[in-house]
Design brief:
There is one protein chain. The chain is 40% helix and 20% strand. The longest helix has 27 residues. The protein folds into two domains: 331 residues, no CATH class; 106 residues, Sandwich (Immunoglobulin-like). Helix 4 packs antiparallel against helix 6 and helix 6 packs across helix 8. It starts with 5 loop residues before the first strand and ends with a strand. Strands 10, 11, 12, 14 and 16 form a five-stranded antiparallel beta sheet that branches. By secondary structure, it is α+β, with helices and mostly antiparallel strands. The protein contains 16 helices and 18 strands.
Length: 481
């Protein structure tokens, strides 16, 4: 069906969705700035149930981040990603480049768990445990301690420069830089032995790269948590852009109950809502003032919302003062806001939980059965075979043996697969923890026992002091045609 034509600015008839720019008056043409300048957000301090939950969820992760590099496990740093040595020490386990597929699998599990939690409860990761949120909260707390409450900070920024303003601003930035430095120093301590790093800094005897990376991560923390704040969540974090794809009508999100709150309006505490024909929202805008991203949750779900529930605690405090029921702003689902019942067990949640359980099970089984020993056999391709004076056939191999355990072990090398074949060379080797050794060996066989030009041969390495530490690899043995 074709829609009816409409009149343009001069009153003539035009087709819909067609605009003649020459007929538009110059005064009606405006310029749109696509790059809006950031407006500083002055958040108000609020306390409540969900903020206590955020405190108990964020602080353990923060303390774990700061303390883990200082802990020792079996005489070594508990967590150390030693890139020059190409090994990762994590809580008593040593991982090598050969174990990177397991690391990738672990990251996939973490991402899948994040998707599953998002489908069920929205962006609670962002609001409660995301490092950007945790560090920004610390910086905001320091800002409140040095510059005062929300109104005091607004007045301070509007006031002319004075000794008091310089002192307050300096105290804030010094405290920010201190926290940022501790963060950067700790992060580098995960890749460089942190106790050696501290000793080198005290003695001013540092290598070239540690100070550079400490400075880099100090500035990154200072800028992200102190200056950019919500800009990171709104424009830099990709999760904010695609998280809505994982939402459905039953996902728990922070929402404003417009059916209960509208029409909004201010009133006295003892005023009757029925007489004023108003909803429960008194339009105090406290929910906007506490929001770290500066949005108004009453406008509905927005991608900037990180699900921190600051607006929930703020609104509940107002409802308590007005003697209204709590929950005008609450964690709820779109289905519940429409008067229906939320479906907790739904196919998507069951599917996520099932796949996640299988992935965790496979990873756990792989970890429990992981052998900290690797063997690679490379046959010499320059000489396919050597015929000895007695007529026997020799093949030359280079075995690369990696002891991925922390302890020293003695290993024996054996061969199988060819009847009567013998090993020429040292078959017993002692390797320190983490040592990689290339071993040159010969395998000799009588031509009468070789029925085909190329036979399969198996090398077996086993620790004499730990029978469970055993691995095998397969190669080929070649004879003349």
């Amino acid at each position: 069906m074709r829609s009816a034509p409409h009149r343009n600015v001069k009153g003539t008839m035009t087709e819909p969705n067609r605009i003649d720019l020459q007929e538009i008056a110059p005064a009606e043409v405006g310029e749109i700035d696509l790059y809006q300048r950031r407006e500083k957000i002055y958040t108000r301090k609020i306390e409540g149930f969900f903020q206590r939950v955020r405190l108990f969820s964020g602080w353990p992760l923060l303390l774990g981040y700061l303390l883990l590099p200082w802990l020792y496990w079996d005489g070594r740093q508990a967590v150390l990603f030693d890139l020059p040595a190409r090994k990762f020490d994590i809580l008593g386990l040593t991982f090598w480049p050969q174990d990177f597929p397991m690391l990738a699998f672990l990251l996939i599990i973490a991402a899948f768990a994040l998707f599953a939690v998002t489908t069920f409860a929205g962006r609670i990761w962002c609001g409660y445990t995301c490092p950007q949120t945790v560090w920004t909260s610390i910086f905001m707390w320091l800002e409140q301690k040095t510059e005062g409450s929300r109104n005091q900070r607004v007045k301070l920024d509007q006031a002319p420069w004075s000794a008091g303003k310089i002192a307050r601003k300096s105290a804030k930035h010094i405290s920010w830089l201190f926290v940022a430095f501790v963060t950067g120093f700790t992060f580098v301590g995960y890749f460089y032995p942190i106790r050696e790093l501290l000793g080198s800094m005290v003695s001013l005897n540092l290598d070239t790269w540690p100070p550079y990376w400490i400075l880099f991560f100090t500035l990154a923390t200072y800028i992200n948590a102190g200056w950019m704040r919500e800009q990171v969540c709104k424009y830099m974090c990709p999760y904010a852009r695609f998280q809505s794809v994982m939402f459905d009508h039953d996902t728990l999100i922070v929402s404003y109950d417009s059916g209960r709150g509208e029409p909004r309006g201010s009133r006295k505490r003892d005023a009757s809502r029925e007489e004023l024909n108003l909803g429960d929202c008194i339009n105090c805008e406290l929910c906007v003032q506490v929001c770290p991203t500066g949005i108004d949750i009453r406008h509905g779900l927005q991608y900037e919302c990180i699900g921190c529930a600051l607006c929930v605690d703020a609104c509940n405090s107002v409802m308590d003062k007005m003697s209204y029921p709590r929950g005008l702003i609450r964690y709820t689902s779109e289905r519940e806001l429409q008067g229906e019942k939320t479906h907790w067990l739904r196919p998507r949640i069951i599917g996520y939980a099932t796949v996640l359980a299988v992935m965790i099970g496979v990873f756990s089984y792989t970890m429990l059965n992981r052998t900290p020993l690797e063997l690679t056999a490379i046959r010499d391709r320059n000489q396919l075979f050597i015929t000895t004076d007695t007529g026997a056939i020799d093949n030359i191999y280079t075995l690369q043996l990696v002891n991925m355990d922390r302890e020293m072990h003695e290993f024996t090398i054996a061969i199988s697969g060819i009847e009567g074949a013998t090993l020429i060379g040292d078959a017993v080797h002692t390797l320190d923890g983490g040592e990689v050794r290339a071993i040159s060996l010969r395998v000799r066989a009588e031509p009468t026992l070789l029925t085909v030009p190329s036979s399969e041969i198996t090398f077996t390495v086993e620790a004499t002091d730990s029978p469970g530490l055993r691995t095998q690899t397969v190669s080929r043995f070649v004879k003349p045609l």
